[in-house]
């Protein structure tokens, strides 16, 4: 069941090596980016490996950090793309109107009349705020702004979100007009 205390939540990723002395470039997905170091040790998605993390300095797009067990540039570079997770129990409780992305992914999406639209496939942010990607086969996925106006209801207990999309909703794969 999603939301259990042992569930792993993705809090960041290794973006590659930084410098020549074994530091890694870390991209944090935390609301306060430097908080990623508070949840150490961080785990791989399968929980098979763990890494302590010590931030050494801010860098463009994230942090330079020392990862436990990583001593060379080659070792750090080999971790590029590795997603770093923390057990939910280590993360702070959120206010009622905030959600971990992991809690939203997989929720059923319905319109304001209750008609099914699809399922939340991902939460995207390309600099303009969060968007829910709603998979609705066979139609192309929808990108819906994750705002109170466009998503007035998030009901984790019922495992659904209510979508009231704006008229200018973005449809993936739609031809440019």
Classification by helices and strands: mainly beta
Q: How many runs of DSSP E, i.e. beta strands?
A: 14
Largest sheet strand order: 12-13-8-9-10-11-14
Largest sheet: 7 strands, mixed
How would you spell out the order of helices and strands?
Answer: EEEEEEHEHEEEEEEE
Describe this structure in words.
- The chain is 6% helix and 41% strand.
- It has 177 residues and is mainly beta.
What's the topology here?
Elements: E1 8-18, E2 23-28, E3 42-43, E4 50-51, E5 53-59, E6 62-67, H1 73-78, E7 83-87, H2 101-104, E8 108-111, E9 116-125, E10 130-135, E11 142-145, E12 153-155, E13 160-163, E14 170-171
Keywords:
mainly beta; five-stranded antiparallel β-sheet; seven-stranded mixed β-sheet; 14 strands; 177 residues; disordered C terminus
In short:
The chain has helices at residues 73-78, 101-104, and strands at residues 8-18, 23-28, 42-43, 50-51, 53-59, 62-67, 83-87, 108-111, 116-125, 130-135, 142-145, 153-155, 160-163, 170-171.
